[in-house]
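Record now logged underneath.
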Amino acid sequence: MSKRVMLVDGMALLFRAFYATAVSNYYMINSKGVPTNAVYGMVKHLFSAVREYEPTHVVACWDMGSKTFRNDMLESYKANRSAPPEEMVPQFDLAKEVMEALHIPNVGLAGYEADDCIGTLSHHYREEAEVLILTGDQDMLQLLEPNVSVVLLKKGYGNYAEYTEERLKEEKGITPKQLIDLKAFMGDSSDNYAGVKGIGEKTALKLLHQYGTIEGILENISALTKAQRSKIETDLDMLHLSRGLAAIRCNVEIDFPLEEALLQVDEEKMAWKFNELEFKNWRKNLI
């Protein structure tokens, strides 16, 4: 049987599920006073995707603390983010417990983001399996390569935008690696780094279509308009730093054997956990 592994961006599913119901102050607080809305929604996203794509193996990847090597590169990296809402806090550990109860391994590495773990595992696994990355984060599109697809969650449940290298090329006219250079120019306000001020997506794409890479653009800087040249020269250090921040690492120190990620849900263990959390109507709504 051919292998198909789904790498799950745990935080992306958890936060998406949390805000979908938190907006109406619905936190699914159980009799122990524990909110469960994010975990419930995460499971719903997960099971919907498993039904749709039928993976043989599943791994959940997580951020491990808020400080990573990117904070060593730029102290203010992600410093603009506020603390998670208090109803979210107990659900981080619960989410991992639920994955464990579903016999899905939790993988993360201190000092790195979940993206780096996903990048590394996808690069390893693609030699022996088809790889699907389940996320809501478009940054993951830089990980597209032969045998690797990215499944972006869209609004609601069970709605996806599936990306391959070819689709990215059709839509943006660039390769996955060029996405890193695109982000280096544009910066990322949610991660709190600036890129090159005054150069947005349209100009950056045009330059990348023409010259291929940041190096290609810098080699031909005399051919750019005076305004473009001035902006790039002013923010040249930030351009290089932004590229380093934007690039997902695919060589971090994790080695998780694919056979240990075989999807084999123990119905009894799952039922016990869902009942413990007091998930309502889970047989009807989740599985």
